[in-house]
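Thread: heme C complex, take 2
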Amino acid sequence: MNWQWRAQGPGRQTRQAAPAVPSGWRQVLRRVLRPILRLAPLLALVAGLLSAVSVWADDVRRPGSAYMSPATQALQRDDTQNPAFLWVRDGEQRFAAQCAGCHVAADMRGVAARYPAIDARTGQALTLAGRIRSCHERHLRQPAPGWESEPLLALLAFVTLPSRGMPITPPADARLDAVRAAGEALWRQPFGQLGLACAQCHDRLPGQRLAGSTIPQAHPTGYPIYRLEWQGLGTLQRRMRGCLTAVRAEPFDEGAPQWVALEAMLMRRAAGMPLDAPGVRP
Ligand code: HEC
Ligand code: HEC
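Output below.
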Protein backbone atom coordinates (compact mmCIF):
# COMPACT_ATOMS: atom_id res chain seq x y z
CA MET A 1 0.00 0.00 0.00
CA ASN A 2 3.02 2.25 0.57
CA TRP A 3 3.52 3.08 -3.09
CA GLN A 4 0.20 4.90 -3.09
CA TRP A 5 1.55 7.31 -0.49
CA ARG A 6 4.89 7.69 -2.12
CA ALA A 7 3.03 8.75 -5.23
CA GLN A 8 1.86 11.73 -3.22
CA GLY A 9 5.46 12.91 -2.98
CA PRO A 10 5.12 15.79 -5.46
CA GLY A 11 2.13 16.98 -3.44
CA ARG A 12 4.37 17.39 -0.44
CA GLN A 13 6.62 19.62 -2.47
CA THR A 14 3.64 21.62 -3.69
CA ARG A 15 2.60 22.12 -0.12
CA GLN A 16 5.94 23.62 0.70
CA ALA A 17 5.64 26.04 -2.21
CA ALA A 18 1.97 26.89 -1.94
CA PRO A 19 -0.19 24.69 0.27
CA ALA A 20 -2.97 23.52 -2.08
CA VAL A 21 -4.47 21.27 0.59
CA PRO A 22 -4.47 22.51 4.19
CA SER A 23 -2.31 20.23 6.30
CA GLY A 24 -5.31 19.55 8.55
CA TRP A 25 -7.09 18.07 5.55
CA ARG A 26 -4.06 16.06 4.68
CA GLN A 27 -4.14 14.52 8.15
CA VAL A 28 -7.82 13.72 7.83
CA LEU A 29 -7.38 12.17 4.38
CA ARG A 30 -4.47 10.16 5.64
CA ARG A 31 -6.43 8.90 8.62
CA VAL A 32 -9.58 8.11 6.67
CA LEU A 33 -8.12 6.88 3.42
CA ARG A 34 -5.40 4.65 4.74
CA PRO A 35 -7.71 2.24 6.59
CA ILE A 36 -10.11 2.24 3.63
CA LEU A 37 -7.32 1.32 1.26
CA ARG A 38 -6.16 -1.37 3.64
CA LEU A 39 -9.68 -2.73 3.79
CA ALA A 40 -10.12 -2.65 0.00
CA PRO A 41 -9.54 -6.37 -0.56
CA LEU A 42 -11.97 -7.19 2.24
CA LEU A 43 -14.58 -4.79 0.83
CA ALA A 44 -14.19 -6.40 -2.60
CA LEU A 45 -14.73 -9.80 -1.02
CA VAL A 46 -17.87 -8.62 0.78
CA ALA A 47 -19.22 -7.08 -2.44
CA GLY A 48 -18.55 -10.36 -4.24
CA LEU A 49 -20.35 -12.33 -1.57
CA LEU A 50 -23.32 -9.96 -1.67
CA SER A 51 -23.68 -10.35 -5.43
CA ALA A 52 -23.42 -14.14 -5.07
CA VAL A 53 -26.17 -14.00 -2.44
CA SER A 54 -28.35 -11.87 -4.70
CA VAL A 55 -27.96 -14.46 -7.50
CA TRP A 56 -28.90 -17.15 -5.03
CA ALA A 57 -31.84 -15.16 -3.67
CA ASP A 58 -33.09 -14.36 -7.18
CA ASP A 59 -36.34 -16.29 -7.19
CA VAL A 60 -37.61 -15.00 -10.52
CA ARG A 61 -38.14 -18.05 -12.71
CA ARG A 62 -36.59 -17.77 -16.14
CA PRO A 63 -36.81 -20.15 -19.09
CA GLY A 64 -33.57 -21.51 -20.53
CA SER A 65 -33.88 -19.12 -23.49
CA ALA A 66 -33.28 -16.18 -21.08
CA TYR A 67 -29.65 -17.31 -20.73
CA MET A 68 -29.00 -17.57 -24.46
CA SER A 69 -27.35 -15.16 -26.89
CA PRO A 70 -29.70 -12.86 -28.88
CA ALA A 71 -28.82 -14.82 -32.04
CA THR A 72 -29.93 -18.16 -30.54
CA GLN A 73 -33.06 -16.51 -29.09
CA ALA A 74 -33.91 -15.19 -32.56
CA LEU A 75 -33.45 -18.69 -34.01
CA GLN A 76 -35.91 -20.09 -31.46
CA ARG A 77 -38.49 -17.34 -32.06
CA ASP A 78 -38.66 -17.63 -35.83
CA ASP A 79 -40.54 -20.76 -36.92
CA THR A 80 -39.10 -20.49 -40.42
CA GLN A 81 -35.54 -20.52 -39.03
CA ASN A 82 -35.92 -22.81 -35.99
CA PRO A 83 -34.50 -26.17 -37.18
CA ALA A 84 -36.90 -28.06 -34.86
CA PHE A 85 -39.67 -27.34 -37.38
CA LEU A 86 -38.15 -29.92 -39.74
CA TRP A 87 -39.20 -32.50 -37.11
CA VAL A 88 -42.58 -30.82 -36.60
CA ARG A 89 -43.37 -31.19 -40.33
CA ASP A 90 -42.16 -34.80 -40.35
CA GLY A 91 -44.32 -35.43 -37.28
CA GLU A 92 -47.36 -33.94 -38.98
CA GLN A 93 -47.10 -36.53 -41.77
CA ARG A 94 -46.52 -39.39 -39.36
CA PHE A 95 -49.47 -38.28 -37.25
CA ALA A 96 -51.75 -38.17 -40.29
CA ALA A 97 -50.59 -41.65 -41.32
CA GLN A 98 -50.52 -43.42 -37.95
CA CYS A 99 -52.54 -41.59 -35.35
CA ALA A 100 -55.35 -39.75 -37.12
CA GLY A 101 -57.60 -42.83 -36.95
CA CYS A 102 -58.06 -42.16 -33.25
CA HIS A 103 -56.83 -38.58 -32.64
CA VAL A 104 -57.38 -35.13 -34.15
CA ALA A 105 -54.33 -32.89 -34.00
CA ALA A 106 -56.42 -30.13 -32.42
CA ASP A 107 -57.13 -32.42 -29.43
CA MET A 108 -53.43 -32.32 -28.61
CA ARG A 109 -53.76 -28.72 -27.44
CA GLY A 110 -52.74 -28.53 -23.77
CA VAL A 111 -51.63 -32.15 -23.56
CA ALA A 112 -47.89 -31.38 -23.37
CA ALA A 113 -48.55 -28.87 -20.56
CA ARG A 114 -49.86 -31.57 -18.21
CA TYR A 115 -47.43 -34.48 -18.64
CA PRO A 116 -46.00 -36.56 -16.93
CA ALA A 117 -49.36 -38.05 -16.01
CA ILE A 118 -50.60 -41.33 -14.54
CA ASP A 119 -51.65 -43.97 -17.06
CA ALA A 120 -55.09 -45.22 -16.00
CA ARG A 121 -54.40 -48.80 -17.04
CA THR A 122 -51.08 -49.38 -15.30
CA GLY A 123 -51.14 -46.70 -12.59
CA GLN A 124 -47.60 -45.75 -13.70
CA ALA A 125 -46.43 -42.21 -14.48
CA LEU A 126 -45.70 -41.60 -18.16
CA THR A 127 -43.89 -38.74 -19.85
CA LEU A 128 -45.40 -37.48 -23.09
CA ALA A 129 -42.75 -39.42 -25.01
CA GLY A 130 -43.69 -42.48 -22.96
CA ARG A 131 -47.37 -41.94 -23.82
CA ILE A 132 -46.62 -41.80 -27.55
CA ARG A 133 -44.60 -45.01 -27.25
CA SER A 134 -47.44 -46.62 -25.34
CA CYS A 135 -49.88 -45.75 -28.15
CA HIS A 136 -47.60 -47.58 -30.58
CA GLU A 137 -47.58 -50.75 -28.47
CA ARG A 138 -51.12 -50.64 -27.16
CA HIS A 139 -53.13 -49.20 -30.02
CA LEU A 140 -51.01 -49.54 -33.16
CA ARG A 141 -49.72 -52.95 -32.02
CA GLN A 142 -46.23 -52.04 -33.18
CA PRO A 143 -42.93 -52.02 -31.35
CA ALA A 144 -42.46 -48.60 -29.72
CA PRO A 145 -39.95 -46.34 -31.48
CA GLY A 146 -36.67 -45.79 -29.58
CA TRP A 147 -36.54 -43.01 -26.97
CA GLU A 148 -34.41 -40.63 -29.03
CA SER A 149 -35.36 -42.06 -32.45
CA GLU A 150 -36.32 -39.73 -35.28
CA PRO A 151 -39.95 -40.99 -35.53
CA LEU A 152 -40.52 -40.46 -31.81
CA LEU A 153 -38.88 -37.01 -31.80
CA ALA A 154 -40.94 -35.96 -34.83
CA LEU A 155 -44.24 -37.07 -33.22
CA LEU A 156 -43.25 -35.51 -29.90
CA ALA A 157 -42.45 -32.16 -31.55
CA PHE A 158 -45.72 -32.21 -33.50
CA VAL A 159 -47.85 -33.18 -30.49
CA THR A 160 -46.16 -30.56 -28.26
CA LEU A 161 -46.51 -27.59 -30.62
CA PRO A 162 -50.26 -26.92 -30.06
CA SER A 163 -49.50 -26.31 -26.35
CA ARG A 164 -46.99 -23.56 -27.07
CA GLY A 165 -47.76 -20.47 -24.98
CA MET A 166 -49.96 -22.42 -22.56
CA PRO A 167 -49.02 -22.45 -18.86
CA ILE A 168 -47.57 -25.67 -17.45
CA THR A 169 -50.39 -27.29 -15.47
CA PRO A 170 -49.23 -30.41 -13.61
CA PRO A 171 -52.19 -32.67 -12.80
CA ALA A 172 -53.50 -32.52 -9.22
CA ASP A 173 -53.23 -36.30 -9.02
CA ALA A 174 -52.19 -37.61 -5.58
CA ARG A 175 -50.57 -40.63 -7.25
CA LEU A 176 -47.99 -38.25 -8.72
CA ASP A 177 -46.92 -37.02 -5.26
CA ALA A 178 -44.62 -39.99 -4.63
CA VAL A 179 -43.17 -39.63 -8.14
CA ARG A 180 -42.44 -35.93 -7.58
CA ALA A 181 -40.98 -36.65 -4.13
CA ALA A 182 -38.62 -39.18 -5.71
CA GLY A 183 -37.66 -36.53 -8.27
CA GLU A 184 -37.06 -33.98 -5.50
CA ALA A 185 -34.75 -36.44 -3.68
CA LEU A 186 -32.77 -37.07 -6.89
CA TRP A 187 -32.53 -33.31 -7.43
CA ARG A 188 -30.76 -32.89 -4.10
CA GLN A 189 -28.61 -36.02 -4.23
CA PRO A 190 -24.87 -35.64 -4.99
CA PHE A 191 -23.89 -37.40 -8.21
CA GLY A 192 -20.71 -38.70 -9.77
CA GLN A 193 -17.05 -38.30 -9.04
CA LEU A 194 -17.63 -34.57 -8.64
CA GLY A 195 -20.32 -35.20 -6.00
CA LEU A 196 -22.57 -32.43 -7.34
CA ALA A 197 -26.35 -32.27 -6.97
CA CYS A 198 -28.63 -30.83 -9.67
CA ALA A 199 -29.79 -28.28 -7.09
CA GLN A 200 -26.27 -27.05 -6.41
CA CYS A 201 -25.94 -25.80 -9.96
CA HIS A 202 -29.51 -25.03 -10.96
CA ASP A 203 -30.97 -23.59 -7.71
CA ARG A 204 -27.85 -21.80 -6.46
CA LEU A 205 -25.79 -20.78 -9.47
CA PRO A 206 -28.07 -19.93 -12.41
CA GLY A 207 -26.55 -17.23 -14.55
CA GLN A 208 -22.98 -18.24 -13.63
CA ARG A 209 -20.60 -19.39 -16.36
CA LEU A 210 -19.30 -22.92 -16.28
CA ALA A 211 -16.80 -24.23 -18.84
CA GLY A 212 -18.14 -21.97 -21.57
CA SER A 213 -21.87 -22.45 -20.84
CA THR A 214 -24.25 -20.44 -18.70
CA ILE A 215 -26.00 -22.43 -15.98
CA PRO A 216 -29.78 -22.10 -16.53
CA GLN A 217 -32.50 -22.67 -13.90
CA ALA A 218 -33.35 -25.92 -15.72
CA HIS A 219 -37.02 -25.28 -16.41
CA PRO A 220 -38.41 -27.82 -18.88
CA THR A 221 -40.46 -25.30 -20.90
CA GLY A 222 -38.73 -25.75 -24.26
CA TYR A 223 -38.71 -29.52 -24.86
CA PRO A 224 -38.07 -31.18 -27.22
CA ILE A 225 -35.17 -28.86 -28.11
CA TYR A 226 -32.99 -28.47 -31.15
CA ARG A 227 -29.48 -28.31 -29.73
CA LEU A 228 -26.78 -26.82 -31.94
CA GLU A 229 -24.20 -29.01 -30.17
CA TRP A 230 -26.21 -32.14 -31.08
CA GLN A 231 -27.09 -30.93 -34.59
CA GLY A 232 -30.42 -32.52 -33.85
CA LEU A 233 -33.55 -32.67 -31.75
CA GLY A 234 -33.56 -34.22 -28.29
CA THR A 235 -35.81 -34.82 -25.30
CA LEU A 236 -35.55 -33.51 -21.76
CA GLN A 237 -34.27 -36.96 -20.82
CA ARG A 238 -31.33 -36.58 -23.20
CA ARG A 239 -30.55 -33.12 -21.83
CA MET A 240 -30.56 -34.36 -18.21
CA ARG A 241 -28.44 -37.34 -19.21
CA GLY A 242 -25.84 -34.83 -20.44
CA CYS A 243 -25.74 -33.18 -16.99
CA LEU A 244 -25.13 -36.54 -15.30
CA THR A 245 -22.33 -37.35 -17.73
CA ALA A 246 -20.85 -33.89 -17.12
CA VAL A 247 -20.47 -34.61 -13.39
CA ARG A 248 -18.98 -38.02 -14.28
CA ALA A 249 -21.97 -40.02 -13.09
CA GLU A 250 -23.39 -43.12 -14.75
CA PRO A 251 -26.71 -42.01 -16.30
CA PHE A 252 -29.89 -44.01 -15.68
CA ASP A 253 -31.17 -46.35 -18.39
CA GLU A 254 -33.32 -44.95 -21.17
CA GLY A 255 -36.89 -44.51 -19.98
CA ALA A 256 -35.91 -45.30 -16.37
CA PRO A 257 -38.36 -44.21 -13.64
CA GLN A 258 -35.71 -41.77 -12.33
CA TRP A 259 -36.05 -39.69 -15.52
CA VAL A 260 -39.83 -39.66 -15.17
CA ALA A 261 -39.50 -38.61 -11.52
CA LEU A 262 -37.10 -35.77 -12.37
CA GLU A 263 -39.35 -34.60 -15.20
CA ALA A 264 -42.45 -34.66 -12.96
CA MET A 265 -40.59 -32.67 -10.30
CA LEU A 266 -39.29 -30.14 -12.83
CA MET A 267 -42.76 -29.65 -14.35
CA ARG A 268 -44.22 -28.90 -10.92
CA ARG A 269 -41.32 -26.53 -10.19
CA ALA A 270 -42.15 -24.74 -13.46
CA ALA A 271 -45.94 -24.76 -12.94
CA GLY A 272 -47.55 -21.70 -14.50
CA MET A 273 -44.62 -20.91 -16.81
CA PRO A 274 -45.61 -20.86 -20.48
CA LEU A 275 -44.37 -23.65 -22.73
CA ASP A 276 -42.04 -22.28 -25.41
CA ALA A 277 -41.26 -25.53 -27.21
CA PRO A 278 -39.71 -26.38 -29.55
CA GLY A 279 -36.71 -24.59 -28.08
CA VAL A 280 -33.24 -24.01 -29.51
CA ARG A 281 -30.18 -24.38 -27.27
CA PRO A 282 -26.48 -23.79 -27.86
C1 HEC B 1 -22.12 -28.78 -12.54
C2 HEC B 1 -23.35 -28.07 -12.71
C3 HEC B 1 -24.57 -28.86 -13.13
C4 HEC B 1 -25.13 -29.94 -12.49
C5 HEC B 1 -24.66 -30.65 -11.25
C6 HEC B 1 -26.33 -30.27 -13.25
N1 HEC B 1 -26.46 -29.43 -14.31
FE1 HEC B 1 -28.03 -29.32 -15.56
N2 HEC B 1 -27.09 -27.90 -16.68
C7 HEC B 1 -25.87 -27.36 -16.38
C8 HEC B 1 -25.46 -26.45 -17.45
C9 HEC B 1 -24.17 -25.66 -17.52
C10 HEC B 1 -26.51 -26.48 -18.40
C11 HEC B 1 -26.56 -25.73 -19.73
C12 HEC B 1 -25.71 -26.46 -20.69
C13 HEC B 1 -25.47 -25.75 -22.00
O1 HEC B 1 -26.16 -24.79 -22.34
O2 HEC B 1 -24.57 -26.21 -22.71
C14 HEC B 1 -27.52 -27.39 -17.87
C15 HEC B 1 -28.74 -27.65 -18.47
C16 HEC B 1 -29.77 -28.36 -17.88
C17 HEC B 1 -31.12 -28.42 -18.38
C18 HEC B 1 -31.64 -27.72 -19.62
C19 HEC B 1 -32.43 -26.49 -19.29
C20 HEC B 1 -32.92 -25.75 -20.50
O3 HEC B 1 -33.29 -24.58 -20.36
O4 HEC B 1 -32.94 -26.29 -21.59
C21 HEC B 1 -31.82 -29.25 -17.54
C22 HEC B 1 -33.28 -29.62 -17.65
C23 HEC B 1 -30.90 -29.71 -16.52
N3 HEC B 1 -29.67 -29.13 -16.75
C24 HEC B 1 -31.23 -30.59 -15.50
C25 HEC B 1 -30.30 -31.11 -14.61
C26 HEC B 1 -30.58 -32.20 -13.71
C27 HEC B 1 -31.89 -32.94 -13.59
C28 HEC B 1 -29.43 -32.42 -13.00
C29 HEC B 1 -29.16 -33.48 -11.95
C30 HEC B 1 -29.36 -34.84 -12.36
C31 HEC B 1 -28.45 -31.44 -13.44
N4 HEC B 1 -29.01 -30.69 -14.44
C32 HEC B 1 -27.18 -31.30 -12.93
C33 HEC B 1 -25.14 -27.57 -15.22
C34 HEC B 1 -25.40 -28.56 -14.29
C1 HEC C 1 -56.38 -47.15 -32.01
C2 HEC C 1 -56.49 -45.85 -31.41
C3 HEC C 1 -55.22 -45.05 -31.17
C4 HEC C 1 -54.19 -44.80 -32.03
C5 HEC C 1 -53.98 -45.30 -33.43
C6 HEC C 1 -53.31 -43.89 -31.36
N1 HEC C 1 -53.80 -43.61 -30.12
FE1 HEC C 1 -53.03 -42.24 -28.83
N2 HEC C 1 -54.49 -42.71 -27.48
C7 HEC C 1 -55.47 -43.64 -27.67
C8 HEC C 1 -56.18 -43.83 -26.42
C9 HEC C 1 -57.34 -44.79 -26.19
C10 HEC C 1 -55.59 -42.96 -25.49
C11 HEC C 1 -55.91 -42.80 -23.98
C12 HEC C 1 -54.87 -43.54 -23.19
C13 HEC C 1 -54.93 -45.03 -23.35
O1 HEC C 1 -55.95 -45.62 -22.98
O2 HEC C 1 -53.96 -45.59 -23.91
C14 HEC C 1 -54.55 -42.26 -26.21
C15 HEC C 1 -53.78 -41.25 -25.65
C16 HEC C 1 -52.86 -40.50 -26.36
C17 HEC C 1 -52.20 -39.32 -25.86
C18 HEC C 1 -52.45 -38.65 -24.51
C19 HEC C 1 -53.67 -37.75 -24.62
C20 HEC C 1 -54.02 -37.15 -23.29
O3 HEC C 1 -54.96 -36.33 -23.27
O4 HEC C 1 -53.41 -37.48 -22.25
C21 HEC C 1 -51.34 -38.92 -26.83
C22 HEC C 1 -50.40 -37.71 -26.75
C23 HEC C 1 -51.45 -39.84 -27.92
N3 HEC C 1 -52.39 -40.77 -27.60
C24 HEC C 1 -50.69 -39.77 -29.06
C25 HEC C 1 -50.79 -40.70 -30.08
C26 HEC C 1 -49.93 -40.69 -31.22
C27 HEC C 1 -48.79 -39.69 -31.47
C28 HEC C 1 -50.33 -41.71 -32.02
C29 HEC C 1 -49.75 -42.13 -33.33
C30 HEC C 1 -48.39 -42.61 -33.31
C31 HEC C 1 -51.45 -42.34 -31.36
N4 HEC C 1 -51.69 -41.73 -30.19
C32 HEC C 1 -52.14 -43.40 -31.88
C33 HEC C 1 -55.75 -44.30 -28.84
C34 HEC C 1 -54.96 -44.29 -29.96
